Amino acid sequence: MDDLELIALLEQVKLADKQAFRKLYELLYPQLLRFLARNTNSVDDAEDLLNEVMFAVWRGAANFRGESRVRTWVTGIAKIMAKRWYIRHKSRHNQENNLEDITLLVDDVSGWQESESLAMCISRLPAEQQEALKLAYYYGYSCAEIAELTQCPAGTVKTRLYHARRKLRQLFQPHTLH
Question: Domain range spanning residue 137?
Answer without folding.
Answer: 98-172
